[in-house]
Amino acid sequence: MLIETRNIFKIYDEGLESEVRALDDVSLTIDRGEFVAIIGQSGSGKSTLMNMLGCLDIPTRGDYILHGTNVKDLSDNELSRIRNKEIGFIFQQYNLIASLTVQENVELPLIYQGIDAEKRSRMAMEALEKMSIAEKAKSYPKQLSGGQQQRVAIARAISAKPSIIMADEPTGALDSKTGHDILGFLRQFHEEGTTVILITHDNGIAASADRRVRISDGKIVEDTGPVIKYPKAAEKKAAEAEANSHEEAAKAAQEAMKAAAKMEEELL
User: Fold this and answer.
1) What does the alpha-carbon distance between residue 265 and residue 268 come to, in Å, rounded to a whole number?
2) Residue at 268 is within a domain
3) Residue 34 contacts residue 228 (beta carbons within 8 Å)
4) Does 181 reside within a domain?
5) Residue 267 — pLDDT band, cuts 50, 70, 90?
6) CA-based, 20 to 30 A from 166: which of 84, 96, 137, 189?
7) Which stretches does DSSP call E strand in the chain?
8) Structural domain for 148, as ranges
């Protein structure tokens, strides 16, 4: 199982008259390769749940198991690594940095991973080409339309080839045609084996997903159940993620050996 929440709560002002239960005893499992829509109106708890699943916040009580690991046992650095490499975030307002070019925006998560300049430039351009906006690589966000900015934001989300895409109202600021195109890209990523979690208040948008989970007042009130349409693609994606993990571990071991050798030389 890729994602599992066990009786999680997110409570603000617990025990006070002003107590708010943004999440109230939520248990949910999402398997690798699913396309899930989490649906709810404003204040329902859907964005809070996304923050939990995306390791942007931690529950007041309960457990969140990701890749078989309890998130509460991870350090801040480990959580940061997961957010940066394992999860690609797509937001309604794009969150592009105005002073950076399109390519530089897409390279940001790769810089945080320590990827060298040549490789991250190649990875960024591959992502931009996939989103059919590579010709704008040297442009700045203010020079782009809303739809173009969202394509760049998606390119940034997929540049590190994450196993999970989390999209929070990704079509909310777009016209219907552009929004339809964005949903098409999400379906494409799903077909390639990526687990896609779509957060929306719109039942029509949610219909794009294979599984729909409805949340109200912090509780799951409806779940249409797991659907994995492309199991082979999901297995391939998992194998790639494992291979990358082994490559990272080997690289870290090499760096540790170099550091130890340097320290030994200094001592001598």
Assistant:
1) 5
2) no
3) yes
4) yes
5) low
6) 137
7) 3-12, 20-30, 35-39, 61-66, 69-70, 87-91, 164-168, 195-200, 211-216, 219-223
8) 3-262
